[in-house]
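Thread: "does anyone have the structure for this chain?"

Original post by V.I.:
We have the sequence but no experimental structure in hand. Need at least a predicted one for the grant figures.
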Amino acid sequence: MDVVSDAISAVRNGQPSSNRLRVGGSWCTRLAPYEGAGFHVVLAGGCWLVPETGGEPVTLGAGDVVLLPHGVGHVLADSPGDTARAVPFEEMRRPAEGGDGREVELLCGKYRLDRSRTHPLMAELPEVVHLPNRVGRHPELRSAVDLLANELDERRPGSCLALPHLLDLLLIYMVRAWMSEAETGSWPSVLNDPVTTAALRALHSDPAAPWTNDRLAAAAGVSRATLARRFTALVGRAPMAYLTWWRLTLAATRLRDTDASLTTVAREAGYGSPYALSHAFSREFGVTPGKYRVEAGSS
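Reply from O.Q.:
Generated one for you, tokens below.
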């Protein structure tokens, strides 16, 4: 696994959901804050997105994609003016009657995310990631949008299976596109540094291995001192501190998503015994692995 895949997999929980919205004329709808990530794909026409946190309104055109990675509440409307007229999104899931011919069609959806273990790469995404439809930019994202538009007809054979997988693919492409254009944030820089990237790829490929600073430096092809300096400066944690955090994050994911025994979870996370895992896990999460599993199962 690579860092981006792992960062997404660690927080993804359940399947994404989506709804098709087709409106015309004067309209305004509010989407409440959500414990996950929201997204919109403009299939036809154009509209405005107004974040409820005070951010600047964003104009969206046909083919544009927008990701709201922290689930911020927002308004979609024909104009950015009076958002007090907004009605709940649930009341907008039907074509508007009449109108002035300026029809807008969007695919609106949500990803379920477990924010208790958010990878720092995901945490530093801005509240609104706007990816305009520009010729020659992010061809894989454009292809995913085209495929999504073709799969929205539920009468097509296999569409019920294809659509959630395409939505998962869309999330990866949105994060990739942001990283390629980001002017802020440390993780685009982290993954552009060959030494740090090599070390992270090694840790993520085999987190249970008996890593040491010397062994990891050899995998990255640099001295121990060089690795420690560059990794810590870019990632914000020393290599072994990052490895400990990532191992416990993986253990938490296994506890949440599977019924694997604590012995198995400990072994897969690189801990020699359930006791060693339980001690480290309690220190990181404030609860024992058993209690964490029960609480995750009831949420």
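V.I.: this helps a lot. The chain has twelve helices and ten strands.
O.Q.: and The beta strands are 17-23, 28-31, 36-44, 47-51, 58-60, 65-68, 74-77, 87-88, 104-112, 129-131.
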